Amino acid sequence: MDIASAGYISTRGGIEPIGFSDAVMTGLAPDGGLLLPEKIPDVQQELEEWRALSYPKLAEKVIQKFIGDELRPHTLRNLIQNSYARFDAEEVVPITEADDVYIAELFHGPTMAFKDLALQFLGNLFEYLLEQREDHLNVIGATSGDTGSAAIQGIRGKDNMNVFILFPEGRISKVQERQMTSVRDGNVHAVGVEGTFDDTQRLLKELFSDLDFKEQYRLGAVNSVNWARIVAQIVYYFYSAFRVQDKNGKSPVQVVVPTGNFGNIFAGYLAHRMGAPIDRLILATNENNILKRFFQEGIYKKGRVTPTLSPSMDIQVASNFERYLYYRCGEDAAQVQQLMEDFRRNGRIQLSGEDPLFASGTATREDTLRIMHRFYDEHHTLVDPHTAVGLSVAEQNRDPHLPTVCLATAHPAKFPEAVKLALGTAEPAKHPGLDTIHEAPARHAVIAPEKSAVADYIRSAVEH
Predict the structure, then answer these.
(1) Residue 214 is a catalytic residue
(2) Catalytic-labelled residue, pool 65, 115, 205, 414
């Protein structure tokens, strides 16, 4: 049974099931929850058929499971082919090996970050659905660094869409900021928020909770609260596991995931539930380790955001954690709603029990720099600071029985300051796609971390 035919529901239980296309266009559920399929498909009988597929062909198979008959096969195929046409690696996600770890390079898209793997698809999907509906959309996103530029590249210049990206002013790398602010298309709006990434996520949720404003200004979500983002990310878990299995006698794998917002690793959780040959997910955090503390102590407690060398993970409130919480609570939407209300009031959730699928660890600033230096010195492999966090936590979780895959989430050229700290020079951190952005004219607005400020900016831009 295709689960899309059964529909999508909210983690908080406040809506009737909706179809896949409506789930994509809705973004955040009207009751404030996140959308999930009513059932997760079991694909264990199809694994051998999928194993030898190219990345785009595998993406068709995986994504189709969540669409049912809402898109014709040739339509989905075209969307996927167009989405990966701009990647600079033929296999889309190359797998390399260093230090007994397999590194899945997720950064070969137009903005050199793993977000491209989902946001190129989502931008094309939005465009197709809007054409079918003869509609328009104002897409809103919050970014801790990479989501914003990937969303902009997925949507820039497309008809019937504007994209508004909120980012924490002064808290992302200079390259990440320039990738957004140097794009001059008229439908692109980069907006610096005087606060942290958690402030930008809060503003996004407040806007979507204002149902009148959301409807009047046709708001759509580009963050991983949008279900299509998660679906597209599931693909590389299957792909990486298959490729590493082929080199290790079909042994299951463990996957190390640098994560801050829980969207990336939640896609891995779903891949495991679907039947991917993944025995363990290892959550890797920097000093902002709210997620590590939850998986080790059962306490999800908000703290202060600490700026680090891996800014895309400088997060204390992980928006996708609610989706995992739904399954951890036995799919009890009422309990999820109560827990999220408790968290809103007290900044704290506590759950008993453990999930044996997950391990976790933290990498400090010193760990990050040490790994970056060692991999370059010993393996001639340059990694960005987020990937270095993953590789450091991989060291902490060696398992002789499970091959280890570490997700490399960004190209090191996006973080030349961190590379210089680690190696003494930024010279190796080069990418031709970044050569022109530093000299290009840039523009962005700066606003207060208040819902009214964001709403006024959107209203002014749309009605201009």
Answers:
(1) no
(2) 115
